[in-house]
UniProtKB/TrEMBL annotation:
<dbReference type="InterPro" id="IPR054388">
    <property type="entry name" value="Tle1-like_C"/>
</dbReference>
<feature type="domain" description="T6SS Phospholipase effector Tle1-like catalytic">
    <location>
        <begin position="281"/>
        <end position="414"/>
    </location>
</feature>
<dbReference type="Pfam" id="PF22137">
    <property type="entry name" value="T6SS_Tle1-like_C"/>
</dbReference>
<protein>
    <recommendedName>
        <fullName>DUF2235 domain-containing protein</fullName>
    </recommendedName>
</protein>
<feature type="domain" description="T6SS Phospholipase effector Tle1-like C-terminal">
    <location>
        <begin position="458"/>
        <end position="532"/>
    </location>
</feature>
<dbReference type="InterPro" id="IPR018712">
    <property type="entry name" value="Tle1-like_cat"/>
</dbReference>
<dbReference type="Pfam" id="PF09994">
    <property type="entry name" value="T6SS_Tle1-like_cat"/>
</dbReference>
Amino acid sequence: MSEVTYEMTQKDNVWLPAAFPAQGRLPTQRYLVRQNCLRQVSDEKAYHQELCLAANRRVELPCCKTLHVSLFFDGTGNNLYNDLYQAVPNHPTNIVRLFQATIGAGYAGGASGKPLLDDVESTGGKYFKYYIPGVGTPFPEINDLDYSTSGLAFANRGEDRINWALLRLIDVLGFSLTQKQMTNSESQKSLEAMSTTWHTLDLGGMHNRYGEFYKQFARLKRELKIARSQPGRSKSKLLGMKLYVYGFSRGAAEARTFVNWLTELLPPPTGDNQKPSQCLQAKNETDPDCNLPISVEFLGLFDTVASVGISHVVPVVEGHMGWADGTQELPSEATYGGLVKRCVHLVSTHEQRLSFPMDSIRRSDGTYPTGSTEVIYPGVHSDLGGGYPPGEQGKAIGETDGLLLSQIALHEMYAAAFEVGAPLKVPKNALPRELSKDIWRSMPLDLGSEFFISTTLSERFNAWRQVTLGLAMPQQPLSDEEAACFEPVRASVALEQAMENQMNWLTAWRINRYANGMLLGMPFFHEAPNRDAKKA
């Protein structure tokens, strides 16, 4: 849908976060890791079962594979290379942390050459991941070379970022079939061909996007047909492609647009009352071995903000211009049911929205899409998506990231994605014995430190739940199995009322701290860095 409004009379209720465990939500039990890995090979197991039924006997496990592609759209002004490698102290967003925690070869936009990827051979050539820098920051792979006001203010070059992500699907497929990747110059040439032009403005760029995408797809037809039918003993049969898409802020808006533009690439229905096949298939192609089944297994969003073009601060305008125009509502279940298997949207309740209103995933009729969950959390925008360093504004003082409020949302999103089979790295001690040699599945120590969470933070978070939401704590501490689960609680009110309630608490706190001078005694007031003070 578009921004949160108060016009709908019937609205589904929002969700509230569950009690947060002192140990965090990373899996520590081996059987949980085993379940996650089994979900990743569900298509392979289904294909094996199909062969057994056809032969009416138990047949040998076939050589086959599914491609897993994870895409990470960072927020406005956020950039992995700067935030992780140049800034002092470093302050990566939760998108960057999840990118690092994801299994896969691939590419990190703007940070080529950095040790962020897994070896493609070690991981079986099945796992790939791609990082897309936030609008307004350098992304040389699309010829966006510097920080820009137009990107920060109007989300300029967002379309190119989404198209670059779509081209990664071609790139992964091409590499899997031919061992060749698209060069940056080839990608830039395709991006130019895909972009919206004045004479195709009425089509919203769909004509150019579809034409160039399938031009590249058609070049792989011969190899795809072989891989989808009978590739031979030395090669794996290709079963399909599964996507895991993450986004923060305008990056979350880009992620939602990506999913909608993906539906435009699906083949048209073959007849009346028919749904489009959920596969990549060139126009007029009838050979079933020349298509590629595709699905979005997980869509993880941190506090979506579109504000593309002129923002909502101007009357009549809603900030949904250009690539955000009509692309923020998730695909219809009636037409594309099952394409997006799971969607989780974590929402900030204390952000002062003004010209950057939050875009709920609730539909325009007031209902939530099947398989989706929208959960409210305390804090402002970057307390959800991350990006604050320890000590910013005098808060989260310490030598680690353990007191950053955004660590809560990081663990929540990790747990939600892990439950559905997202290919995520895990603590080394959680690896089952049969996977102990797959060191690429385990978190390095430095990455584990980025997920560190203080018990003080979990206590403060749970106190917020109890006081402002009226949610009681469990009688017993959460077990390791319970801790790894993402199980939010359904609220008794819709999103708007829940946010209004939180704003009431915030306003009362502000009045209190100013009225009696409490502010002057607060630790954060004394610890806040005075970077902008004028020199005497």
